[in-house]
């Protein structure tokens, strides 16, 4: 092996380690920001079935509600970046599979942004007290605010389907990669299955929302957390990745 080849390989390994850490940090950022955004905003202020209490809560803590909205918007941006990084990491395994996983994650982010952020903006407009809202009574604007927030619950189930697909595909890529162990991929695929069960289950039978949330906690969270921490701490086998990339002809960092 020539000095030039060795230097090129070392450079690739360095960039690869950096990329895997970035992927792990982005994933952990989602793990932290999304729950905080929902807990600070919707979960803290929305009272199911009580439009007046919901409207009063949002008016009294509009800054908190807006902070949650900004957090949800940032998730969309992080998801796009993560989709790109994971595409590059797993492209040597399957270009088509990696692209499909990235596309599913981008679709999830788009639906999340268009749905979650839109319903938050619409809620704030309904409660904003603009002069044209005088055509509506206070009860009606309060009801509109709760309507938008409850519509968001269904939108979450829709982007959850795209998210589930991205997890299943990424789990498949991990398990057959050769530069990561199979078991994190299996856990990630199980996480995707958990989100599929939750989204389809609640859409079909809303009364099962509580039990199905437990399914997600049991199946999804461990798999995602393991994957994120593995990328951040262990990374990938750089030698195996380079070998796989060379075999795939052209999957370069």
UniProtKB/TrEMBL annotation:
Keywords: Membrane, Transmembrane, Transmembrane helix
Keyword DNA-binding: no
Matches recorded under InterPro entries: DUF4386 (IPR025495)
Membrane spanning stretches: 19-37, 73-90, 110-135, 155-174, 186-206, 212-233
Name used for this protein in its record: DUF4386 domain-containing protein
Native organism taxonomy: Bacteria, Bacillati, Actinomycetota, Actinomycetes, Micrococcales
């Amino acid at each position: 092996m020539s000095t030039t080849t060795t230097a090129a390989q070392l450079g690739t390994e360095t960039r690869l380690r950096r990329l895997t850490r970035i992927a792990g940090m982005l994933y952990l950022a989602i793990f932290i920001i999304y729950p905080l955004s929902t807990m600070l905003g919707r979960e803290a202020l929305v009272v199911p079935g009580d439009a007046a209490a919901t409207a009063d809560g949002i008016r009294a803590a509009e800054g908190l509600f807006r902070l949650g909205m900004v957090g949800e918007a940032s998730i969309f941006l992080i998801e796009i970046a993560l989709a790109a990084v994971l595409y590059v990491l797993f492209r040597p395994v399957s270009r088509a599979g990696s692209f499909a996983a990235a596309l599913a994650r981008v679709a999830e982010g788009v639906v999340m942004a268009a749905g979650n952020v839109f319903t938050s903006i619409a809620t704030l407009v309904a409660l904003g007290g603009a002069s044209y809202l005088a055509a509506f009574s206070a009860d009606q604007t309060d009801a509109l605010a709760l309507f938008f927030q409850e519509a968001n619950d269904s939108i979450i189930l829709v982007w959850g389907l795209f998210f589930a697909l991205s997890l299943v595909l990424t789990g498949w890529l991990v398990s057959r990669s050769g530069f990561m162990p199979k078991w994190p991929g299996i856990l990630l695929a199980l996480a995707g299955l958990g989100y599929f069960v939750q989204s389809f289950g609640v859409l079909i039978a809303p009364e099962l929302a509580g039990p199905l949330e437990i399914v997600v906690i049991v199946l999804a969270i461990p798999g995602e957390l393991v994957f994120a921490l593995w990328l951040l701490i262990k990374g990938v086998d750089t030698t195996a990745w380079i070998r796989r990339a060379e075999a795939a002809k052209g999957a370069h960092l």
